[in-house]
Amino acid sequence: MTTSPSLLLxxxxxxxxxxxxxLRALWCHLDAAGLDWISLWDHxxxxxxxxxxxxxxxxVAALAALACDTTNxxxxxxxxxxxxxxxxxxxxxxxTIDHLSAGRFELGLGAGWHEWEAEAYGYDFPPVGERLSxxxxxxxxxxxxxxxxxxxxxGEYYRMSxxxxxxxxxxxxxxxxxxxxxxxxxxxxxxxHGDGWNAAYVGPDEFRHLNGVLDHWCEVEGxxxxxxxxxxxxxxxLGSDAxxxxxxxxxxxxxxxxxxxxxxxxxxLGTPDQAAEQILAYRDxxxxxxxxxLRAPVDADVLDAYLFEVVPRLRSL
Length: 317
Known about the structure:
Layout: E1 8-13, H1 20-32, E2 37-40, H2 59-69, E3 74-77, E4 80-81, H3 87-100, E5 105-110, H4 115-120, H5 128-147, E6 151-154, E7 159-163, E8 176-179, H6 186-193, E9 196-200, H7 204-221, E10 229-238, H8 242-256, H9 260-263, E11 267-270, H10 272-284, E12 289-294, H11 300-315
Parallel strand pairs: 1-2, 1-12, 2-3, 3-5, 4-5, 5-8, 8-9, 9-10, 10-11, 10-12
Antiparallel strand pairs: 6-7
Helix pairs in contact: 2-3, 3-5, 6-7, 10-11
């Protein structure tokens, strides 16, 4: 996929803490507002973890509804944890969603991080090195199924025997995204397999650094770095005024707890008037796509200020 010279703007929606009608209304609103991208996440519990106390919807089923409810935005999941589903089953689900969306779906894959939900639901959650090896194998399996007439694969974690996937994606090629920040393995996997790469909740300086690491691995793997789209998810913490921003900043620390310091640099904290400058810093650091990450409850007026004031301003630059 050739990246666009202009900055693309999207939303990453956490399907938690709201009922299904509210969720569908939210993504329809985002699509009607003209965003370039809408993605969901792949969790079984809320994030950050609160022990499974908030309402939460499963990703594959929700993405099918998202595909049917929208008409404009590219759609994805950032990202599916490969430990929750056999890669053949996930490839078939992805193609089904792709057809429901008339070819707008893109498949994101990652090594996972939410060990609390995995433990609660009885999934193995091995050390990160093993999960990255699973990601490498799963990506190879899925790429083969999406592309080849028949796929054979014999790995440590996954096996395929003369497996077919019919129909193929609407546009013949369904883009694969790799999500994560690991410099030694994750970014090399993105360089080797990815059409896109996503980092979540990092500041512009860290994104610039990671972007350079990805370019390095592209050189090692013999890939043209321009063929890999780069995106970042930013926590949506805008407030209506200075007092609201201060309140949100305090609530942010309480919500994220021990993780607050790690993700704060990757949050849009400020007023809508300040958001454009923050987002442009990511464009200058090499981002092709910047997504606001929404967790309910979302202030509708502040969100609309972003969608109908900040986004048009950014598109005009």
